[in-house]
Amino acid sequence: MVIRRRNGKIPLSIKTFYPRGAYRLPTGGIHHGERILDALRRETDEETALEVEVRRFLAWIIYRDVSVPEGPPLFHTLAFL
Q1: pTM to 2 decimals?
Q2: What's phi and psi for 74, nearest 5 deg?
């Protein structure tokens, strides 16, 4: 999730298992049968306790194992602003 605050700043988070000084955008998963925008709102609330207005879709990135190009995707990233 790319969350832009009214002051223009984008909040980032850290994880204890990431290297020191590594920051990331808030992320989350989609439950089986859950609509994408419902998952986005739920995960944003869980990760940040913020209610957000989804303005636009930014990107859909599909991650694959390059050693198995015909194999199923490892995971997907969907980005919204």
Answers
A1: 0.73
A2: -75, -45
| Pick from 15, 32, 34, 33: nearest CA to 23 | 15
- Whole-angstrom distance, CA of residue 41 vs CA of residue 74: 23
- End-to-end CA distance of the chain: give it in Å, rounded: 7
Residue at 60: amino acid letter: W
In one-letter notation, the amino acid at residue 65 is D
Q: Which two tokens stand for residue 66?
A: 């390059």
Chain segment 27-74, per-residue pLDDT in tens? 889 999 999 999 999 998 998 898 888 889 999 999 999 999 889 999
Alpha helix positions (H), the chain:
36-48
Show the tokens assigned to 50: 């913020």
